[in-house]
Amino acid sequence: MASAQWLALILALLLIIIHLLTKDRKQNKRLPPGSMGIPIIGQSLSLLRAMRTNTGERWIEDRINKYGSISKLSLFGQPTVFLTGPAANKFIFSNDSLALKQPQSFTRIIGSRNMTEFVGADHKRLRGAVSYFLKPEILRKYVGKLDEEIRQHFRTNWFGHQQVKVSPSMKRLTFNAMCATIFGIKQGTTRELLVNEFKYMMAGMWTVPINLPFTRFHNSLKGREKVGKILTRIIEEKRSALQKGQCSSEDEDLITYLLSLGTDNDETFTEEEILDNAVLLMIAGHDTTAIVLTFICRHLANDAVTYAAVLNEQEEIAKSKAPGEALTWDDLLKMKYTWRVAQEILRTIPPAFFGFRRVIKDVEFGGYLIPKGWQVFWTTSVTHMDGSIFKEPERFDPSRFEKQSEIPPYCFVPFGAGPRICAGYEFAKTEMLVAVHYMVTRFKWSLCCKDDTFIRDPMPSPKEGLPVLIEVKASL
User: Fold this and answer.
1) Domain of 46?
2) pLDDT per residue over 320-360, tens digit each?
3) Is 457 inside any structural domain?
4) What SS3 string covers 400-429?
5) For residue 218, which of 203, 231, 230 has the smallest C-alpha distance?
6) What sign for the dihedral angle of Cα 345, 346, 351, 354?
7) Where are the coiled-coil regions (predicted)?
8) How many folded domains does the chain comprise?
9) How deeply is 46 buried, as exposed, middle or buried, from its count of CB atoms within 10 A (0-12, 13-18, 19+)?
10) 129 vs 251, 254, 279, 428, CA distance in Å?
11) Which of 38, 152, 341, 357 shows a CA-CA span of 20 to 30 A to 241?
12) Rounded Cα distance, 248 and 221, in Å
């Protein structure tokens, strides 16, 4: 009897093993083509090397030529599927089986309650609240405050200076704009403390998440802790003001708005959620917009025709303003050519060259299986630099965006697309237009160094911070 039981058990185990082997073989046949490379390392080092040498487009092109538009690989220790093209972009930005994915270092520094870590109802709840505050109907009320912050930045950091490093200057400008309009933090000691700790926090955002003394990641965690303490104090102050009826409006800043949401329909946000998403927005609204402004400045210094067209448009608006009068939402609506220039910068030098999505359940695309637990890797350059979508893609041509309807859907994706388009898109646009207005109407500049190339680490960064010589044209 014992022998029969052992035989039955062995037979059952064999059947299970055969089933698993068959299942894996079937699954592997359905996986996209490609090599996973060296265990753990995979293709990570070659991608990072390409980014730092600014040959990322060639790296992508070589991969497509070898494996096609869908392939598997390993990046940053994770099995990955690389997808390209308009249909892939639509799949990535609209499929509920995919969720945002950030590097572990990014999540640990920001906090686990930020919206990029959520899916389903929780993600919808957080995104909905943030999107409401950043929509045009709300933003139009903050153009004046944004105008004053940007003018103050140029008064302090450009007037009286013969030379300016554009990249760090634009990062300071966008950070101050975020503090004033999104978080209601006025100029002073609190903002200066926040700026200093924010620098430490950002330094290790995309590093190996090893928390050992003297590592960039360790210093970033310490910076995040101090930023958290400052923001927690601000949250408490705004909660107290709200309870005492001392706020002129519940949507006067994002923190006050989130605190004001009631318990109806489960809209209440915890302090941890408010804190983590405030940090997320500080990062998202800081680096990307600063990068675009930096490369607009760089391009206008090299392209006299585009510079003249932008200047002409902005001077016409300036003529309609009284001395010292702030820009309005209606003024921004007139900046059509300037925004097309910004869009062309976003097409040719997108701040985010690539991104990831995590697969939360098995999903298929193009006849292949993408298993749960894998990540999807996508890049902007494939459609942005596709000659069948954008004629002569290497040529800088703002007129491409004169008729937005002629650009196929899911092809121009610097802010994402569809239901996953960046919630801060309109804020970034507003900030860029105000900054460019005062840049071109109040200053002339020229590049200090002939070598104005840049690297991606992982975002585009010009050599030496893009130093320029400044000539003041008019006061602010």
Assistant:
1) 32-113+353-390
2) 999 989 999 999 999 999 999 999 999 999 998 888 999 99
3) no
4) HHCCHHHCCCCCCCECECHHHCCCCHHHHH
5) 203
6) negative
7) none
8) 1
9) middle
10) 11, 9, 15, 17
11) 152
12) 35
Instruction: Indicate whether this model's pTM tops 0.85.
Output: yes
Other Cβ atoms within 10 Å of 37 Cβ, number: 15
Return the pLDDT at 298: 96
Q: What's the confidence (pLDDT) of residue 475?
A: 81
> What is the domain-level CATH number for residue 364?
3.30.43.20
- The pLDDT mean for the chain works out to 88
Two structure tokens written together for 74: 């390993």
Would the CA dihedral through 52, 54, 55, 57 be positive or negative?
A: positive
The answer to whether the beta carbons of residues 209 and 217 sit under 8 Å apart is yes
Decide if 103 is inside a domain: yes
Is there a domain that residue 361 lies in?
yes
Q: Which residue has the tokens 């946000």?
A: 269
Q: Do 324 and 392 form a contact (C-beta atoms < 8 A)? A: no
**Environment class of 406 (CB within 10 Å of its CB; exposed 0-12, middle 13-18, buried 19+):** exposed
Ranked by mean pLDDT, the top range of 46-60, 254-268, 413-427 is: 46-60
Q: Are 287 and 171 in contact (CB under 8 A)?
A: yes
Give 182's Cβ-side CA count (13 Å radius).
Answer: 30
Pick from 206, 204, 202, 458: nearest CA to 353: 458
Structure token pair of residue 365: 């695309």
Distances (CA, A) of 204 to 46, 51, 108, 188: 21, 18, 11, 26
Report yes or no: 68 and 366 within 8 Å, Cβ to Cβ: no
Alpha-carbon separation of residue 107 from 104, 114, 473 (angstroms) = 5, 8, 44
Q: How confident is the model at residue 476 (pLDDT cuts 50, 70, 90)?
A: confident
With respect to residue 46, please indicate whether it lies within any of the assigned structural domains. Answer: yes
**Residue 422 counted as an annotated binding residue:** yes
